[in-house]
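Aim 2 progress. For PqqD family protein, the working sequence is reproduced below.
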Amino acid sequence: MTARYRRNDQIIDRVEPDGEYFLFNPITAKFNKLNRIAGLVWEVLGETHELDGLTDAVFKRVKGVDRSTLEADLRRLLDDMESRDLVVVDA
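Predicted structure tokens for this construct:
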């Protein structure tokens, strides 16, 4: 079975006028600031996605990166976001 990624529903997010994302996890009481790509991933994860679908959605919106590099970067980002309890992985 393929892993499916989604936002942790308990996370409170805020988008600044300049497009920066700030996430607050009330369970850990920690804030996270997302860079541009991580913010884009957060937007896309408003719906549940497998890695391939997420990669496709992000790839359509970024320039200057090949798909295989993007997928590897997204895998690392998702692992990091999961370790911070920002995303949930449904197996």
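The CA atoms of residues 6 and 48 lie 5 Å apart. This observation will guide construct design in the next reporting period.
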